[in-house]
Amino acid sequence: MASNLLEGKVVIVTGAGRGVGRGIALECARQGARVIVNDLGTSPTGDGASDEPTQEVVNEIKAMGGEAVADSNSVADWSSAAKIVENAMDSFGRLDGVVNNAGILSDVMFHRMTEDQFDRVMRVNLYGPFFVSRAAAPHMRNDNGGAFVHMSSTSGIIGNLGQANYAAAKLGLVGLSKSMAIDLARNGVRSNCIAPFAWTRMVGTIPAETPEQKKRVEGLKKLVPERVAPFAAALLSDAAKDVTGQVFAVRNNEIFLFNHPRPIRTAHTAEGWTPESVVERVLPMMRPSFTPLEKSGDIFTWDPV
C-alpha cells in the first residue's frame, strides 16, 4: 500500500467500475481504506448491466494488498441504494466516506428532450446521490464524523450545449451537498462537490458533429480520469476535517475552487415597483452586470496543465 491517509476507514465509491470512479476506488485503497466498489455495469447511457467491471477493480485492490467488496446495486432506487450502505456495514462494520460518482448521459437539445431522457438522467445523477447519502448519513452521525464527495459538473455550474437534463442534475447536486453540509455539521459530517474534467466512456458519448462540439471533445480527450482521484481521497481524510460545503474542480494537474452565487447589484424604491418602472430603471441598471450565456469551454480556454 502506498500511504495511510485513509487507514482504518471504509469508503463507498459508486460508479467505480471504470473511469473517474475506478481511479478514486484504487486511490482510496492505496491510502489504506477498505472500499465498497459499486457499479451496475451499465452502458454510459444507463443500459444493460454487468458485474465484471466491479470485480476487476476489486481484484486490482486485493492484488495491491487492500480490502474491497464488489457491489452491483443501483443507486437510482431507494431500496437498492440502501443495500449499498448495508453491504458496507455488513462487510466492514462501519462507514466513513461516500463518493457519489455514478452517472449517465443522454445528451439532446432541450426542445427535443423526452420525459424519459430527463427522468433517467435525474434519477441516476441526482436522486442516486440523495438515496445513497440518505442511507449513509445515520451511520456517520452515530460516529460523529464522515465525509461525502459528490461528482458535479461544469455543465451545471457553468453550462453546456444539449445537456439540460445533466446540467439540472449536477447543479442540483451542488445544492444538495451544501444542504447536507449545513444539516450534518453538528455531527462532524462533511459534504463537498468536485467537478471532474476527464475523458471517460460516458464523456465519449457527447456528440461531436459541429465544429464547436468537435473542438470540445478533442480537448476532453487530453484529460486523464485518474488525476481526479488524489483530490477526492484528500477530501475524505481527517486532514480535510474543516473543508465542507465547497465546490471544486479538477482538470489534470489543476485544482479550482468555485464561488457560490451572491447578490451583486441591488435596486430598491420606497414606492414599490411596477412592471413599467422595472423596465425603465431596474433592467438598464443591472444589464451591465448580467452573466453572459457562457459555456464551460468559454471559461476554461487554455490547454490542461
List the helices and strands and how they pair.
Blueprint lengths: L9 E4 L5 H12 L3 E5 L13 H12 L4 E4 L6 H15 L4 E4 L14 H29 L2 E6 L2 H4 L6 H21 L4 E9 L13 H10 L8 H8 L10 E5 L2 E5 L16 H12 L9 H4 L6
Parallel strand pairs: 1-2, 1-4, 2-3, 4-5, 5-6, 6-7
Antiparallel strand pairs: 7-8
Helix pairs in contact: 1-8, 3-4, 4-6
Order of helices and strands: EHEHEHEHEHHEHHEEHH
- What's the average pLDDT? 93
Task: Please report the total strand number as a whole number.
Answer: 8
Number of helices: 10
Task: Give the domain tally.
Answer: 1
Give me the CATH fold name: Rossmann fold
CATH homolog superfamily: NAD(P)-binding Rossmann-like Domain
Roughly what percent helix? 40-55%
Strand fraction band?
5-15%
Largest sheet: spatial strand order: 3-2-1-4-5-6-7-8
CATH architecture field: 3-Layer(aba) Sandwich
Instruction: Point out poorly predicted stretches.
Output: none
Helix/strand-derived category reads alpha/beta
Distance between the termini: 28 Å
**Radius of gyration, in angstroms, nearest whole number:** 20 Å
The shape, in one word, is globular
What is the C-level CATH assignment?
Alpha Beta
